[in-house]
Amino acid sequence: MEEKHRQLLEDIYNRAYEYEGKYGACPQAVLAALQDFFDGIDDQVIKSVHAFAGGGALCGDGTCGALVGGLAAISSYYGRERSQFGQKTAARKKNFSYSRQLHQNFTEEFGGVTCREVQENVLGRAYKMWDPEDYQKFEEAGGHDDKCTNVSGLVARWTAAILLEKGIAPKV
Q1: How many domains does the chain have?
Q2: Residue 112 domain-assigned?
Q3: pLDDT by residue (tens digit) across 7-16?
């Protein structure tokens, strides 16, 4: 990979890390970081993924929000349009293929895709994000200092690498 892309990927990692640490909502942190460096990710997409934070509604049993953010970014470029319902488009096939790459990177790194599995992997245990006491323990364990921030940064970096590899040009 070219040196300029190495630096770009590092910058994207850092931006997602920063956004997750400052603002939470990992899917939005990932998407916003990618939007800062690539055209094609609409603000409505960022808005629409908010409820996926913390494994969906902060419940922990759904897909990690950071992964959702990365998948949403890929779909912003290759996802099926409503007008294409029922059609087997080339973009549809690409979307699933590129998204599977991200999924594979994620599962290799974190051993699963649910928020709970990621928390167990990076924090040593899962937390009940709706319980104020347990949420405080999550924060004290580094949830928004260096744990979920790192997860968000990695997903943003992996997603950006896929986009670059597939010919999506960054902003100039």
Answers
A1: 1
A2: yes
A3: 999 999 999 9
